[in-house]
Design a protein that fits this description.
By secondary structure, the chain is an alpha/beta fold. Helix content is 43%, strand content 12%. The strands form eight sheets. The chain has an eight-stranded parallel barrel with strand order 13-14-15-19-20-21-24-25. The longest helix is centred in the last third of the chain and has 36 residues. The two termini are 51 Å apart.
């Protein structure tokens, strides 16, 4: 491995005494995730020998490994083996080259950082037959797992279960539920439960009720109108049992649903008007996407009312946020444009996202991989295949009214050796790399040419959002502490001058090739610590061209006061509702200078808890949307790499994306009553309010977000001896309470999670009360909500238990007085027992829902086997406590 990633001889791997041997830890954690042959190769054993040990431990033998783990869950595998295997063994297990592992550690969303910026020094473990004592301990392991989980598995076998990654199948709707009208139509309603024809022939709109097209066709079924119409007809047939036809030419027979698209008409993108009469429906818009949104409105209106009828009249929907883009729930970093099997956006996922109002998706990009890079042609190998992959994605997404945006972090830095023959190009230098200085005309030309080539090669590309201050070294100020760069040219210029120039170059290149494409300037990390005050921000904004949208984190630097401890939001939050004063000032600066604005938000989840696909804190999301509507922002970036699931939350949020006939959006209580029925919806609204109020007790601090164990939850092991390892960024929490709690005292930190967990539990009780009002048609959505809310509770409550465990363990280890030690031992035993129960409860949910524990940039935080291991880990700690002190009856 390169020197940066070499194992640290001073860092001894963590002991795992709950396993009889370390060899068995390797087998347990990898069995079923990688082929048994690989485990055998790592341990220099035969498959038969591995399977014999697996049987003794209670694993199912033989078991065919799910290869999805190696394609979509390799981070889970790496993390599980970080303290167990050498680099050489890890390469054997993954069947990777050293270069691939190096690239993954460096480029896969800062995986090296998530692993703690170090590799423990591990001695190779090889297969060795178990001794009599080890075999006895192994049988005890098997018995413990069996006693804890056999009853759970027996119960699970009577209901449904999911395997890891089955959420990929959830996007598919193989059989839509057949609906039937609850009553006959009224005279004021148009019937859609009879055959209609959808005419996709586009006419220039002349006025309400005008059938003419002035003898000129705007389009004869071109673009995506046919795809929109046919998909609507197919779903209508499945829902209501009525076949509709689609005609790509002028059609006179009634009843008819007609499209009118007039690109010259004024109006915000996607806005549309729908005219409904007995035998004709007209959807009118200035763009194709508006037609799609009209069709979706018709479909959703009928589904909500459970009636295949529409009230006759005129309906207008005006877009309030014309940009609403999100990241894939299931994407892997890899090279998805080259490796087609890693498709980041399957068609079914695109359809589900479109249905919840999303009109844009984003993905990471590296410019030199997408176009020929004149500065270093050798880096552009296979660019043609990637561009073709991007073209396919753009075309595929457009069928669902979705455009593709690229995360733009350019120009990328180069190793110092690159600048030997071009020293004048070298800018900010750090850690063996240097920026391609964007003050150099040749670098500017390359950047401009490459962006132009990208948009020329991919017609229809939605645009880019450019981050100029980031973890990656790009321009000379991108990582400059205190706004001071060591670049000899840029040090004579201000950050605002350099960065606005970069955005200007990019925006001009985009406008030249694709005038309709969007360029968003992301103000993340425009902070005082990096040289940005309000004056510097305003100066940069004033220098940006008119086709740029200013994108800011809504709650950036919003002040917090939690348990009377002052702080502010760094990165993003759901528990603290935006926008902040700083962000509002930036948006006002942009508007004063004629620029559009957009808000970066998290509506599904955040690092406050990312192990569930969404957090049912609907009132917090509603409050945020109301504030954003009032702020006048025109676009929403709906997620970072986490939060991309097409969830109930996004379904409810979509109510705020359009204004209907100038009216206000319905409240959360109305939407939940629509979704679950009046009685159930009312109680679920109360439950969500309890969740929202509880979540505001989260002890917000960026260190808590990234280092505390709430994302790993009950899967994080308990250690009776301090590990002395530091918690890593959304990676391995260990037992590092000192870093978990950040600025909060141990007592305050524990109390805040106690308040959060107890308040959440009240919400669960209310949610359970709604069950008796749930109908068969809403049962699946209710069960989904209940599972997710329950999993969230277990993560919050487990975090509280782990805080108490480490706090009391540390006191226990230094206690001298026997009575005090016994008391602390009893307290610890009580905590450990509750953690054991948390792991068992989460195991049940994980076996039922493949989304729990998964997040795109971290893969699975834990597996079902990890939760079984945690139970044995807890039993081992209990045994140790009982052997050391007199444990009194456990507390309730």
């Amino acid at each position: 491995m390169i020197q940066e990633f070499e194992a640290n001889p001073q860092m001894i791997p963590i002991a795992l005494p709950h396993f009889p041997t370390r060899m068995q830890a390797i087998i347990w954690r990898n069995y079923g995730l990688v082929p048994t042959e690989r485990i055998a190769a790592v341990l220099e054993a035969t498959v038969k020998q591995i399977e014999e040990v697996a049987v003794l431990m209670g694993l199912e033998v033989p078991l065919e490994a799910d290869l999805q783990w190696l394609a979509r869950g390799y981070i889970t595998i790496i993390r599980a083996n970080w303290h167990l295997l050498t680099y050489e063994q890890l390469l054997t297990l993954l069947d990777w080259t050293e270069e691939k592992l190096e690239f993954t550690l460096k480029e896969d969303d800062f995986l090296w950082v998530k692993l703690g910026n170090l590799k423990p020094f591990v001695k190779p473990v090889r297969y060795k037959p178990l001794s009599a004592k080890e075999e006895k301990l192994t049988l005890e392991w098997k018995q413990r797992v069996s006693e804890a989980f056999d009853p759970i598995q027996k119960e699970l076998d009577t209901t449904f279960q999911e395997k890891p990654f089955d959420f990929l199948e959830r996007f598919k709707q193989h059989d839509l539920p057949r609906l039937s009208a609850r009553r006959l139509p009224l005279a004021s309603e148009a019937r859609l439960d009879v055959p209609w024809t959808i005419q996709i022939f586009q006419n220039k709109y002349k006025g309400e009720g005008d059938d003419t097209n002035d003898g000129k066709d705007v389009s004869m079924g071109e673009g995506n109108l046919y795809a929109y119409a046919q998909r609507f007809a197919d779903k209508h047939a499945q829902h209501w049992g009525v076949e509709w036809s689609v005609a790509a030419s002028s059609h006179k027979e009634r009843p008819i649903l007609r499209f009118k698209v007039d690109p010259a008409a004024s109006g915000v993108k996607e806005s549309h008007t729908i005219f409904v009469s007995d035998d004709e429906i007209v959807i009118q818009s200035s763009d194709e996407e508006g037609i799609l949104r009209g069709l979706q409105w018709i479909e959703q209106t009928m589904k909500k009312s459970e009636l295949p009828y529409l009230e006759k009249g005129k309906y207008e929907q005006t877009t309030k946020f014309d940009l609403r883009y999100i990241y894939s729930y299931s994407a892997v970093y890899g090279d998805p444009l080259l490796e087609t099997e890693l498709d980041p956006y399957p068609e079914e996922q695109l359809e589900r996202l479109s249905e919840v109002g999303v009109n844009g998706i984003w993905m990471q990009s590296v410019l030199y991989q997408l176009v020929p890079w004149r500065a270093a042609p050798e880096l552009s190998v296979n660019w043609e295949q990637r561009i073709e992959g991007l073209r396919r994605l753009v075309k595929k997404a457009s069928k669902y009214g979705i455009r593709v945006y690229l995360y733009f972090n350019e120009p990328r830095s180069m190793p110092l050796s690159y600048f030997k023959d071009k020293p004048d190009w070298k800018g900010q230098e750090e850690q063996g790399y240097a920026a391609l200085c964007t003050s150099v005309p040749e670098v500017q030309a390359i950047l401009s040419e490459s962006v132009s080539a990208l948009f020329r090669e991919v017609p229809g590309l939605g645009g880019i959002f450019a981050i100029t201050m980031s973890e990656n070294l790009t321009n000379c100020y991108s990582r400059a502490p205190g706004g001071k760069t060591n670049c000899p040219r840029c040090s004579k210029r201000s950050p605002s001058a350099v960065i606005s120039e970069v955005i200007h170059l990019v925006a001009d290149a985009v406008a030249k090739e694709a005038p309709a494409a969007r360029v968003l300037c992301y103000t993340w990390a425009w902070t005082e610590s990096l040289g940005w005050d309000d004056n510097e921000i305003l100066t940069a904004i004033k220098q940006l061209p008119s086709n740029v949208t200013i994108l800011s984190v809504s709650e950036d630097e919003k002040e917090t006061n939690i348990a009377d401890i002052q702080g502010k939001v760094i990165d993003y939050s759901i528990s603290v509702v935006g926008p902040s004063e700083k962000t509002a000032r930036i948006w006002q600066m942009a508007k004063d200078n004629g620029l559009k604005t957009a808000a970066k938000v998290q509506f599904n989840n955040s690092w406050e808890l990312s192990a569930v696909p969404y957090l049912p804190v609907f009132q917090l999301i509603e409050e945020h949307l109301q504030r954003l509507n009032a702020s006048g922002v025109s676009g929403l970036m709906l997620s970072w790499t986490l939060g991309g699931y097409p969830s109930l939350t996004l379904r409810l949020a979509a109510e705020h994306y359009w204004s209907t006939d100038g009216g206000k959006p319905r409240g959360i209580h109305e939407l939940l009553e629509d979704q679950f029925g009046a009685a159930a919806g009312k109680t679920i609204t109360q439950a969500s309010l309890a969740f929202s109020e509880a979540f505001q007790q989260f002890p917000f601090d960026i260190a808590v977000l990234y280092l505390a164990p709430q994302n790993m939850g009950p899967a994080n092991l308990l250690y009776m001896e301090p590990t002395h390892y530091k918690a890593t960024m959304v990676g391995i929490p260990y037992d590092d309470l000192e870093r978990w709690r950040a600025k909060y005292s141990e007592t305050v930190f524990a109390n805040q999670f106690k308040k959060l967990a107890s308040g959440w539990k009240k919400g669960l009780k209310l949610l359970e009360k709604a069950r008796k009002h749930i109908s068969s048609s809403t049962e699946a959505d209710y069960d989904d909500l209940h599972r997710i809310a329950s999993a969230a509770y277990l993560h919050f409550y487990s975090t509280y238990m782990q805080i108490l465990f480490v706090k009391n363990r540390n006191r226990y280890l230094v206690a001298k007085d026997g009575e005090q030690k016994n008391k602390l031992g009893s307290t610890l035993a009580d905590i450990v027992q509750k953690e054991l129960e948390n792991a068992m409860a989460l195991y049940t949910l994980v076996k039922q829902d493949s989304r729990i524990g998964f997040e795109a940039s971290n893969h699975y935080y834990y597996t079902a086997q990890d939760l079984q291991e945690k139970v044995v880990n807890c039993q081992y700690v209990l045994d140790q406590l009982k052997s050391e002190v007199n444990i009194t009856q456990m507390q309730t």
